[in-house]
């Protein structure tokens, strides 16, 4: 277990020490703000509405707002982690800083950000949401974010019928101001970030900032794979009757992507000898460079590079009055990014085997082929040193080995999006019509993987399976420096997609109390994608999943005999043919909605809505769009109460996701199995804050739902799954944040309860309910200096966010062990910020 530093001292004790050193009074109630007469100050929102100066109380959508102050207080580990403040969303943030999963209103977990439009200053970061949290990073240049669930999201955005999450960045100011912040952790992370804004002249202002971070990660892998940052610039020109904002962003960041690890006892998950469930990882220095022979040469899976993104973003947003109640806005952005994830993925649970079984030729056909060719006895050897392991039953205290896949993906994409709208607004009505154009150019999307074998422990070692004689002399190798199969994965795609959609939204103030709204969007998306042909062992090529395939150039003699005594360096399981298959498709879909808001008085309002919207396919293979768009339909009704003492909202919802594809690839055969389903979810979302006393407040966020699978063809093999709980998503989530307000700042707890889930489509492997307790303090040292302290997962809970996605529709433990991904172990951060 890793060594801890003094950051894990009691946060409350540190807060008391700060108070003794003369901190200034900074009580900050979290319910509705009030003016000097005690009246509630309306909070204006810009997301989910086309009207200006629409307050949260007047809004007909379920909306959550989180400002920078709250983000600094809660210190989320990732962008996905920050969304745990939004009810209705199930957040799986156990993957580290990037490539996490956020599922809305009963959608199965593990779907990345599907059905959610993650936006930056009113525009989707990326049209289809693929790898969106790699491109969008939260730092002090973000002013706040607004999140709507359902509502008008299907009308006002593409590919976000379930939710819009809009991150709003800092703009320039006429008065120079800024913030510098340094964060350190007990896991070796140091992060520096800052923002500065001020005038260029009377008309132009600017805001610039970003972050740089290095760290070993909560699950250290023996190398510094977390390093990099981003820079953002906003230039704002005030116009007579309008505003022009020019923006630029540069992202160059590397992250470790955490994957499932071996555990035991699914009902009460615990670690296995050699693998720490809190801080362990199957990444490490010995597997940091895996060389994979492919049709396109040697590909190096490089964990030092990690999950790398390089992005350049440029935008222009013009808003202007046209006179006579008319105005227009044109918001456009171009993004050019390259993403290169390097990871070692676990295989299905069946890959976790006792070493003695892995060496048994009766249980492992590749070992049988090794012994048939070289004779002798099969043994394991460390690939790095060649040392023979004579008694593998005691290996690392568990006696297991595992096959895995070292995978590298290269994706290069250009993305342009432009949203033009015209609005006519008066005291009674706000009418908006607009058009949104999106274009994606996929220059390259290549996926390469090699099958490897390692021992089972933190930061594991590569193994070789060898044939030895009676004196332990090596006669031949099945594997090559730990690589069992070159070309285990091989896919290449390229293409482009263009989307043009027209939308209309009208908000009508019927009376001082009643508002009605309705909207429609019609979208036409055209796909033109090419896939490179692939030949695979056991399909087009001789051999099977474990041996045979396409010959690696130079591996064999002219007569077909092997040049050395290594089997693995002779063949590629999958090889590109150089022949590209092209598919084109046009998809046309309509989305529509109608809603209302009725305000009883200045404190209480009710709202409701029906909507039906679509989520268009991605363009990353010719198979991705052949089945058309998925559709989401929902009904919701809620009530909102706002006062200085208590601010709350409750939303009832019924949601149907239609034409969802669930699929699995058999890791042994490469065969793909797919089924289309509906999911139904009925529940309630709760959020609010109660100021029980000037010294104490309680914030709460909860989602209670019943989410089930439905609509499978009765004649299909999978029809028996109708009625099952959707996989990976809990029916119960509760988050409580009690806060004690002192003169020097706040001390708080965060309690989260996550209900029971199922790891698989067939509900065969249950993931037990768990709870997490965090503790933190915000200490105002004076009017400019602030110290934020946070300890996450105080009790070191082993909570599983997912089972093993690579074990298919039915997951079960392999004897005593199974793969799953736990939440991050106890960790602490301290952030010192200076505002000027």
From TrEMBL:
So which residues are the signal peptide here?
Answer: 1-25
Keywords noted in UniProt: Cell outer membrane, Ion transport, Iron, Iron transport, Membrane, Receptor, Signal, TonB box, Transmembrane, Transmembrane beta strand, Transport
Please provide one cellular component term from the Gene Ontology annotations of this protein.
cell outer membrane
Q: How does it sit in the membrane?
A: Multi-pass membrane protein
Domain named TonB-dependent receptor plug: residues? 56-163
Enumerate the Gene3D superfamilies for this protein. Answer: TonB-dependent receptor, beta-barrel domain (2.40.170.20), TonB-dependent receptor, plug domain (2.170.130.10)
A molecular function (GO) held by this record is: siderophore uptake transmembrane transporter activity
Q: Where in the cell is it found?
A: Cell outer membrane
TonB-dependent receptor-like beta-barrel domain boundaries: 273-794
Report if keyword Protein transport is assigned. Answer: no
Q: Which family does it belong to?
A: Belongs to the TonB-dependent receptor family.
What name goes with this protein? Answer: Outer membrane receptor proteins, mostly Fe transport
């Amino acid at each position: 277990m890793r060594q801890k530093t003094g950051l894990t001292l009691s946060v409350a004790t540190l807060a008391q020490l700060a108070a003794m050193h003369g901190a200034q009074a900074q009580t900050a109630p979290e319910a509705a703000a009030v003016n000097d007469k005690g009246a509630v100050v309306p909070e204006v929102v810009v997301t989910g509405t086309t009207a200006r100066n629409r307050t949260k109380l007047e809004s007909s959508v379920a909306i959550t707002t989180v400002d920078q102050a709250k983000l600094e207080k809660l210190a989320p580990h990732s962008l996905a982690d920050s969304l745990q403040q939004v009810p209705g969303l199930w957040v799986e943030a156990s993957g580290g800083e990037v490539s996490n999963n956020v599922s809305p209103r009963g959608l199965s977990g593990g779907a990345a950000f599907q059905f959610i439009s993650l936006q930056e200053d009113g525009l989707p970061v990326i049209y289809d949401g693929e790898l969106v949290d790699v491109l969008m990073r939260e730092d002090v240049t973000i002013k706040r974010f607004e999140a709507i669930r359902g509502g008008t999201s299907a009308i006002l955005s593409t590919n976000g019928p379930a939710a819009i999450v809009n991150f709003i960045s800092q703009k320039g100011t006429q008065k120079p101001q800024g913030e510098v912040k340094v964060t350190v952790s007990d896991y070796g992370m140091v992060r520096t970030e800052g923002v500065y804004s001020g005038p260029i002249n009377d008309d132009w202002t600017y805001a610039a900032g970003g972050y740089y971070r290095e760290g070993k990660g909560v699950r250290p892998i023996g190398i510094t794979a977390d390093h990099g940052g981003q820079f953002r610039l906003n230039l704002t020109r005030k116009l007579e009757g309008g505003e022009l904002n020019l923006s630029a962003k540069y992202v160059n960041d590397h992250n470790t992507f955490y994957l499932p690890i071996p555990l035991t006892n699914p009902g009460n998950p615990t670690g296995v000898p050699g693998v720490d469930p809190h801080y362990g990882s199957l990444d490490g220095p010995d597997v940091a460079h895996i060389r994979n022979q492919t049709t396109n040469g040697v590909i190096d899976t490089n964990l030092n590079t990690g999950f790398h993104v390089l992005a350049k973003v440029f935008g222009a947003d013009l808003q202007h009055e046209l006179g006579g109640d008319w105005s227009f806005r044109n918001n456009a952005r171009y993004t050019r990014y390259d993403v290169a994830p390097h990871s070692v993925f676990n295989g299905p649970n069946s890959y976790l085997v006792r070493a003695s079984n892995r060496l048994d030729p009766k249980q492992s056909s590749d070992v049988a082929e090794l012994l048939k060719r070289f004779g002798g006895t099969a043994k394991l050897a460390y690939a790095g040193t060649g040392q023979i392991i004579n008694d593998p039953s005691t290996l690392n205290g568990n006696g297991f080995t595992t096959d895995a896949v070292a995978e590298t993906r290269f994706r290069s994409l250009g993305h342009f999006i432009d949203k033009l709208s015209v609005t006519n607004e008066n005291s009674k009505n706000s009418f908006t019509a607009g058009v949104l154009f999106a274009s994606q150019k996929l220059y390259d999307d290549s996926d390469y993987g090699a099958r490897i074998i390692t021992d089972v422990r933190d930061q594991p070692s590569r193994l070789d399976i060898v044939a030895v004689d009676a004196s332990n002399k090596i006669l031949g190798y099945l594997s090559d420096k730990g690589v069992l199969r070159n070309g285990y994965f091989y896919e290449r795609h390229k293409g482009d997609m263009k989307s043009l959609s027209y939308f209309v939204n009208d908000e009508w103030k019927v009376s001082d109390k009643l508002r009605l709204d309705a909207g429609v969007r019609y979208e036409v998306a055209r796909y033109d994608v090419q896939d490179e042909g692939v030949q695979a062992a056991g399909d087009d090529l001789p051999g099977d999943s474990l041996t045979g395939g396409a010959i690696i150039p130079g591996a064999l003699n002219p007569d077909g005999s092997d040049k050395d005594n290594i089997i693995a360096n002779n063949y590629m399981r999958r090889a590109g043919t150089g022949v590209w298959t092209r598919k084109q498709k046009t998809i046309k879909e309509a989305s529509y909605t109608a809603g209302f808001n009725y305000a009883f008085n200045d404190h209480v309002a009710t709202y409701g809505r029906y909507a039906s919207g679509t989520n268009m396919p991605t363009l990353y293979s010719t198979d991705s769009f052949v089945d058309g768009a998925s559709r989401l339909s929902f009904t919701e009704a809620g009530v909102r109460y706002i006062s200085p003492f208590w601010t709350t909202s409750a939303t009832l919802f019924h949601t149907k996701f239609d034409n969802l594809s669930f699929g699995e690839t058999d890791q042994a055969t490469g065969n793909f199995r797919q089924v289309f389903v509906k999911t139904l979810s009925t529940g309630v979302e709760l959020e609010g804050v109660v100021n029980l006393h000037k010294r104490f407040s309680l914030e709460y966020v909860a989602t209670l739902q019943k989410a089930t699978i439905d609509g499978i063809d009765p004649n299909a093999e999978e029809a028996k799954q109708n009625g099952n709980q959707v996989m990976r998503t809990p029916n119960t989530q509760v988050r409580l944040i009690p806060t004690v307000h002192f003169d020097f700042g706040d001390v708080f707890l965060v309690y989260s309860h996550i209900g029971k889930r199922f790891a698989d489509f067939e509900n065969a492997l249950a993931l037990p309910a768990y709870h997490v307790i965090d503790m933190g303090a915000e200490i105002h040292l004076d009017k400019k200096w602030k110290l934020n302290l946070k300890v996450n997962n105080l009790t070191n809970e082993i909570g599983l966010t997912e089972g093993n996605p690579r074990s298919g529709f039915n997951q079960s433990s392999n004897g005593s062990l199974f793969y799953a991904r736990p939440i991050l172990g106890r960790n602490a951060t301290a952030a010192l910020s200076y505002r000027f």
